[in-house]
Write a structure and sequence with these properties.
about 50 residues, 2 helices, flat, mainly alpha
Length: about 50
């Protein structure tokens, strides 16, 4: 994997919006910073999903 650029993030946003329109449901995006690895990051992601 390579680090995402602002253009990459914009493309992901457009794709997420298209998916949302196509299925009529919301789409959650999660961005991870380089170096966010291991059990602590996994726990944070899990908790974020459970809170929604």
């Amino acid at each position: 994997m390579t680090p995402a650029t602002a253009d990459d993030w914009a493309e992901v946003g457009q794709l997420a919006q298209a998916v949302q329109v196509a299925n009529g449901e919301s789409v959650d995006l999660a961005y991870v910073e380089q170096g966010c690895t291991g059990e602590r990051a996994a726990d944070g992601a899990r908790n974020s999903i459970e809170d929604t």
